[in-house]
Amino acid sequence: MKEHTGLFLHTMLLTKKTFEDVAIWKQEVDNYSEEADILLVGNKCDSMDDRAIPKEEGRLKAEKMKIPFIETSAKNDINVDEAVLQLVTPIVERQFPGAVETKSPAPPAPSGAPARRSCVIS
Q: Which residues of 76-113 are buried (b: 16+ CB within 10 A; e: fewer)?
């Protein structure tokens, strides 16, 4: 795993078990990887009624492990792109200084078409 520079530690916000195991996974990454960028991702943030992990608990665990935290929902497209950019952008910047240029989101597309976002890597 030494050649990997970025890693998502992914946990479901619906069960305590996967959330508790995150610290074990983080330790494994630290044992086998040199200076990997890690992002703790709490998935299924759209399931508010079923969630077992409050947002603050996720944030505090990430803070304790000294890694960033983001909540996502693939189902509702919440923070999915943001999570990828949050992990990948600093890696690309380190490997290719000046290569990443982020742009503001495009204005909403007419007639309900999905909005476009962009990240330029040259």
A: eebbbeebbbbbbbeebeeeeeeebeeeeeeeeeeeee
